[in-house]
Amino acid sequence: MKKPLPVLYSLRNCPYAMRARLAIFVSGQTVCLREVLLSQKPAQLLTASAKGTVPVLVLPSGEVLEQSRDIMLWAFSQSDRNNYLLHQVLDNDKQSEAHTMQQLMTQFDSEFILRLEHYRSAKRYRDPKLLQYRAECEVYLQQLEPRLAQHQFLFADQACLADLAMMPFIRQFARVERQWYLRSPYPEVRRWLDSYLQSAIFSKVMAQYPVWKEGVNETLFSGV
């Protein structure tokens, strides 16, 4: 008998679901991926999680993970051969890097994402506060730019959890005022983002799947 697989409820362009899929993919896990429409939420999703949003990961044990960062940490708890959690200390100067990474992600999730939503809404509804909201977002890019000037990714020349967690939201930021972004004083952020957007990993993570319907189709999503 085959061992049951975790079930991931996902939405292709949701940045939270995107970062969950990224972690699952690069950690080499396999899940049943159920692409959903939030306008037609399947009963199974609502049974698993009353919040009714994605991502949601249902483990074979019955445990339900409802937050994208928890799903990412689950994936790397299964396999972290490329040190995405920064547990393998590279040198004495990096003893606190794992803690710093978690702090940066928490600040980003609690502060930047809210300001990003204001910025996106301002562009959509032609709010005169557009430039103010953009400037509020830029404060966080100004933290990333010097990091990326030092090495290829946020903490080293190899990617870590923070890179995967933050990239989908920087992608959203870059799309709000595309022409401004391309001329903005953040060349290292652009390089870093482009390296993801042009990668084979991103192409696979962003593959389009049919909307899941019970008894009709079950999609396996498997990493490297």
Describe this structure in words.
By secondary structure, the chain is of the alpha+beta class. The protein is about 50% helix and about 10% strand. The chain has 9 helices and 5 strands. It has helices at about 15-25, 45-50, 70-80, 95-125, 130-150, 160-175, 180-185, 185-195, 200-205, and strands at about 5-10, 30-35, 55-60, 65, 220. A 5-stranded mixed beta sheet has the order 4-3-1-2-5. The radius of gyration is 18 Å and the shape is globular. About 30% of the residues are buried. The mean pLDDT is about 95.
Produce a short descriptive summary.
The protein contains nine helices and five strands. With 224 residues, the protein is α+β, with helices and mostly antiparallel strands.
As laid out across the biggest beta sheet, the strand order is 4-3-1-2-5
Whole-number mean pLDDT: 94
Global outline: globular
The topology string of helices and strands comes to EHEHEEHHHHHHHE
How many strands? 5
Strand count, sense and barrel status of the largest sheet are: 5 strands, mixed
Between the first and last Cα atoms, what is the distance in angstroms? Answer: 24 Å
Which segments are poorly predicted (pLDDT under 50) over 5 or more consecutive residues? none
Give helix % range: 40-55%
Structural class: alpha+beta
If helices are DSSP runs of H or I spanning 4 or more residues, what is the number of helices?
A: 9
* Rounded radius of gyration (Å): 18 Å
Strand content: 5-15%
